[in-house]
Design a protein that fits this description.
It is a single chain. The chain is an alpha/beta fold. It folds into 2 domains: 4-123, 2-Layer Sandwich (Fructose-1,6-Bisphosphatase, Chain A, domain 1); 139-248, D-Maltodextrin-Binding Protein, domain 2. Helix content is 38%, strand content 22%. It is built from 7 helices and 10 strands. It has helices spanning 4-25, 31-53, 85-88, 149-158, 168-176, 191-203, 236-248, and strands spanning 58-61, 75-83, 97-104, 107-115, 120-123, 139-143, 161-165, 182-185, 207-209, 228-231. The longest helix is centred in the first third of the chain and has 23 residues, at 31-53. 47% of the residues are buried. The model has no long low-confidence stretch (mean pLDDT 95).
């Protein structure tokens, strides 16, 4: 049987390929309609494939009804079929992703973040350290469309540079790629936004936590998980202290 790390990567890659074909087939339609089509196509694919590959496991998907049977399940797949719908709907943009993660007995144990338009899938099967070296000044990944005031204040406090990009998964993986040093989010997210990026980042030795430094906990009754830090381990204390300073005002 395919192991969980490989399955997550294969599903993220295949869903991404399907999304690329979908975007090509529907080029020129209204962006909102394209977003909806992409979400549904990828969701349906992932649900069908997980039902075949892991029929005993529960699934929490951004696009599906939440079955609270997952709360007593030993294994729960947490998926975002299309992370970064705005970027997906804009021709030529590649900063969108597919998230597939597995939670088991209280922790994330496998995950993959697919970036279809870049032909790359990041996997928890790999434990290579982050590429590059720490930037000077520090580089913080931030939303290009909705940069939260909190992160702007943090960048000012740290003397950091803001690097704009789309999807949450893309921002988290930019730390792994060495394009940025940290991704800090405090504007509201759900478990499917961060589960796969956190599973992959953790496997590669990156620091992952809430903005108060506490552990990220998944498969909660309410899947709202509003804040996140993914950063190079050598800058974790600097970033967390900066967050504390900004919160103190």
């Amino acid at each position: 049987m395919t192991d969980d790390h490989t399955l997550a990567a294969e599903l993220a890659t295949a869903a991404g390929d399907l999304l690329l074909r979908t975007r090509d087939q529907h080029a020129g339609i209204d962006p909102k309609e394209l977003k909806d089509i992409g979400d549904q196509v990828a969701h349906d694919f992932l649900m069908a494939e997980l039902a075949k590959a892991r029929p005993q496991d529960a699934v929490l998907s951004e696009e599906g009804a939440d079955d609270h049977a997952r709360l007593t399940a030993a294994r729960v797949w947490i998926v975002d079929p299309l992370d970064g719908t705005r970027e997906f709907s804009e021709a030529g943009r590649d900063d969108w992703a597919v998230h597939v993660a597995l939670w088991q007995d209280g922790q994330l144990v496998a995950g993959a973040v697919g970036r279809p338009a870049k032909d790359v899938t990041y996997s928890s099967a790999d434990n290579a350290p982050a590429a590059g070296t720490t930037g000077a000044p520090l580089r913080l990944a931030v939303s290009r469309s909705r940069p939260p005031e909190f992160v702007t204040l943090l960048a000012d406090h740290l003397g950091a540079e803001l690097v704009e990009m789309g999807s949450a998964g893309v921002k988290a993986m930019s730390v792994l790629e060495g394009q940025t040093d940290a991704y800090v989010h405090a504007g509201g997210q759900y478990e499917w936004d961060s589960a796969a990026p956190v599973a992959v980042a953790s496997a590669h030795g990156l620091h992952t936590s809430r903005i108060d430094g506490s552990r990220l906990v998944y498969n909660n009754e309410n899947p709202y998980l509003p804040d996140l830090v993914v950063c190079r381990p050598e800058v974790a204390e600097t970033v967390l202290e900066g967050i504390r300073a900004v919160n103190r005002g």
